[in-house]
Structures are given as structure tokens and as C-alpha cells.
Amino acid sequence: MKTTINQVSGHVGQEVTIGAWLGNKRSSGKIAFLQLRDGSGFIQGVVVKSDVGEDIFQKAKSLTQESSVFVTGIVKEDERSPFGYELEVKDLKVIHESVDYPITPKEHGTEFLMDHRHLWLRSNRQHAVMKIRNEIIRATYEFFNTNGFVKVDPPILTGSAPEGTSELFHTKYFDEDAYLSQSGQLYMEAAAMALGKVFSFGPTFRAEKSKTRRHLIEFWMIEPEMAFYEFEDNLVVQEEYVSFIVQSVLKNCRLELTRLGRDTSVLETIKAPFPRVHYDDAIKFLHEKGFTDIKWGDDLGAPHETAIAESYDKPVFITHYPTAIKPFYMQPDPEREDVVLCADLIAPEGYGEIIGGSERIHDLDLLKQRLDQHQLDPEAYKWYTELRQYGSVPHSGFGLGLERTVAWLSGVEHVRESIPFPRLLNRLYP
């Protein structure tokens, strides 16, 4: 009976055949231990010479790393294994012999591993990170579908930019200028006016020349937008969504978290509601902590965000940033025009901002005024202003960066491990 490693729990005591690759092996004169993987999981195959005979035992002993095989054996429960099962091998057929596999069990430098990312993905660690990424995506669809959102796909090629064009990739769209999207938000606002509550999930691009562990050139964003939702409503959706994906990862990726050595106790506490810190109070707090370089009106950098986050065991909202440092579309606080109704959600443990969101301007005259202040072409945004001309309503939305969230939940240090093929400032290969 053919099966996969993640299904062997249903075949204890039965003989099964699994198509797999050899990750590693060790052997003595009478027994060989094969570390096998098939994409769905990892299992140890035990080959006993007296059970299989000389030919199969020698075949097992001579297997090279990453050779592909069909392994037939009896599924046994094994309390010593983190997976809980092992395979008592009865037969072994080599599909393809791998020669001189470059990523050996020894230590390799980061650049070497990045050059071989197409193969590095096969490792236990990278497999675990990708499974956690997949679970976050699965849970995202479950959360929004369950809560009445409609998935809408905004364009990747755009003629304008929600936050200016300084960090966008420019291209020619026949005889027009175009840009790779840095956010689908503006289009999602249009979709929300048609469908009420919507979300998108897709790639975004930022030509920011940054080399920090938190930045990628190409990354994936989940961007919900909601008609008739005001600022506080927006924060509630964010904290409920983040709580849901964290608990889903804890429930469905326990083995992967263990393999990564992740301290799950710090994730167990991630449940709504989350604390809120006004930007004014954040600046005061930072001054008290010795960050004398920052003044009111400055944007917060990574060290500032980390210092604030360290005071909490949950993600924390920093709200009401100065109007002058935020994009044109954010709704001013009705009681203070110098700040806007926005919030960044900062993850614990130094992982930084994972969500940026705000209530959007819904007054036509104010939006035109803000476009003028930001020196943006009103013709390019004509369709966007028309959303305020025909049945405008209060509305809000946010964007969650998938890779930073994956890095946080996985406990990996750098976002380059949280996406299958990272695009970094100096990396377009493989």
C-alpha cells in the first residue's frame, strides 16, 4: 500500500511503501538507520541485516544523501521519535542515486546556503518554516472566509502609488509609465465599496535599499479593507486575526515548532485584546529609556519599536502617529489634526512591525487637499477620489506582512528564511 509519511499513523502494524529521499544515514555491521523525507514529513527507516538479507542491507548502507527511493516496511510506534513512528524496512528500491550533494550535514555559511536555496529548502529546519508559513496562509483564508470577507485580487502593475513612487520599481507599460505594486490598498478600498468586507493576498514590491533582517524586496501581504469600519473596529479585527493565526500554528504545527526549538510558551499568551500605546506616550517612554535622539514628529525605528515591545508579552499597537510622516489617505484624528487614526502592530521578541493600518479619509474635499499637499497628480487618482464622490462611507483597513509574521512565529532571525526564494538587495538568484 502506497502512502505518505504524514499518513503513517493510520497504518500502524501494516506494510506500506513510501516514495522518499534520504536525508542522512548511519549504520553498523548489522543495522542501518535511514533518515527519510517525502515532503509531507520525516521518518526514520530501520534496516536490520538479518531481516532483509545481504543485498538490501548493502544497498541501504551505500545510499548517498538525497538519493530517491521507494521504501517498503512495517509502520511501528516509537516513543523516542518526535514524530512518534518509525519504519521497519523490508525492501528498498533506488529510483535515482544522488552524487556529491552540495549541502552536507556539516555547517555551511549563509551565502553558500542562499546560493543553494533550491536545495536548502529540503532541510528539516526550512521544511518546518515553510509548513508554518503554509499554516498561516491556510488560517488566513479560514479567518476571513468565516467572518464574511470576500477575496479580491488587486493588480500588480499600477499607474500610481499609494505612498509615493520613491521606493517603487518602475517599468514601461507600452507607452505609459507603470510600477510594481507596493500595496493593493487603494484598489481594495474600491472593492470594499462594492463588496463590504474584502481581503487580498498577493506579492508586493519595494525598491528599498535596506539590508536589515526585517526587509525583503519582494514580499507577500494580506490586506483587508472594510466599509463602515472605524478606527477602533479596525484594531479589533487585527487583534482577533493575529490571535487566530497564532493559535492555529500552535494547534497544527506543534511538531514543526519543536523541530525549530521554538519556545511555544511565549506564543500561548498571544490572545486578544492587545495593548495600545499612543504615539505621544511612546515618545515619552523612549525618552525615559534613554533614547534621547528621537523627538516628537520622528518615525520610530527598529530599536525604538523593540524597546516598546519588550514591555509587553503580546503584540502592541502604537497608535496616532503624526500626520506629517504618514501617507495622504489616513484619516486625521477629529480631536487633533496633527495625528492620524492609524496604528502599527509591533510583534514581541524584536520582530518589529507586522501590521500597518488606519481609518481612511472618506471626505472628498479633505482627500483632495491631502493629495495636493503630497504633490500627487489628481488625474492619476481620479478613480480613487470618485470613491468619495459616490456614496462615501467611513472605512478602514490594514496590511499584514506575511514573512515577518512567519519569522516571528517560527523564531527564525532573518526574514530570508521565511519565504521560499527571497529577493534581497543583492540577490536575484536562484
From TrEMBL:
EC numbers listed for it are 6.1.1.22
InterPro entries registered for this protein in UniProt? Aa-tRNA-synt_II (IPR004364), aa-tRNA-synth_II (IPR006195), aa-tRNA-synth_II/BPL/LPL (IPR045864), Asn-tRNA-ligase (IPR004522), Asp/Asn-tRNA-synth_IIb (IPR002312), NA-bd_OB-fold (IPR012340), NA-bd_OB_tRNA (IPR004365)
> What are the recorded Gene Ontology BP terms?
asparaginyl-tRNA aminoacylation
Q: Which reaction does it catalyse?
A: tRNA(Asn) + L-asparagine + ATP = L-asparaginyl-tRNA(Asn) + AMP + diphosphate + H(+)
Does the record bear Coiled coil in its keywords?
no
What GO annotations for molecular function exist for this entry? Answer: asparagine-tRNA ligase activity; ATP binding; catalytic activity, acting on a protein; nucleic acid binding; transferase activity
Q: Which SUPFAM superfamilies match?
A: Class II aaRS and biotin synthetases (SSF55681), Nucleic acid-binding proteins (SSF50249)
Q: Which family does it belong to?
A: Belongs to the class-II aminoacyl-tRNA synthetase family.
Its recorded name reads: Asparagine--tRNA ligase
In its UniProt entry, the species of origin is given as Jeotgalibacillus proteolyticus
